[in-house]
Amino acid sequence: MPEGDGVPRETPSPSVVPESPVEVPVEAVARVFGDRADRAATYRELLATAGVERGLIGPREVPRLWDRHLLNCAYLGEVIDQGSSVIDLGSGAGLPGIPLALARPDLQIRLVEPLERRYTFLREAITELGLRDQVAVARGRAEDVRGEFSASVVTARAVAPLKTLYGWALPLVVTGGHLVAIKGRSASDEIAAAGETLRQMGVTAAPEVLSVGPDDGTGTTVVRVARGHGPLRAATAPAPPGAAKRRPGKGNRR
Ligand SMILES: C[S@@+](CC[C@H](N)C(=O)[O-])C[C@H]1O[C@@H](n2cnc3c(N)ncnc32)[C@H](O)[C@@H]1O
Asked: Which ipTM score applies to this complex?
């Protein structure tokens, strides 16, 4: 990913939308989206208009929606098996779930998003794009949909650091499936910081760091974690500083 961290930028006022012309990377769009390239263009337009107006996408992202968002997210398909079921956790305005669905008609995708404004946009977008047979939308936090939905792959971009994401996403992955998180340049640092969490959850396979997409700045770095076949345990959250000194029944009100 061009800026390396997988995190969308802050959302300034729509009044500062830049007017610069958008360059369409025609060959890449045709290669990645095939006969759905026109629908990808419609989605880009939705992000550039309603997405910006509703504060879901920063106006400065508009000139780079193709490279940094649609293509970048669609390349995730390179590490997802044919015919997989997918949950896109914290989908926001549909990233990476919608580009992935457009590029990979073989995948069945559920977008999970807690915020109402984003959830409404997602429902409108999948209707407008004719994706209702392939893409479902659920409103909720990862913790709320646990036990209700699961999939062979859970994707996430810019939702939380791995240390937190493991606890949110892995319980939604069926045994033998994977968490696939777009992480950009922070991948190795986040893996190191979250190693103990993974161990506590009983996940034994080492996370893989994979490059997807071409080496021209539109590709990105992905962390793939195998859920394994054993039971998943809850990770123990570290005690807040000073917690051990508190006496039971005194000053413990939340
Ligand atoms: C920075 S946005 C990223 C959106 C999108 N994935 C993208 O890359 O553009 C983070 C998203 O995660 C969602 N989110 C935050 N906490 C969550 C949770 N516990 N479970 C599911 N989604 C969550 C937010 O509502 C928000 O849409």
From this structure: 0.99
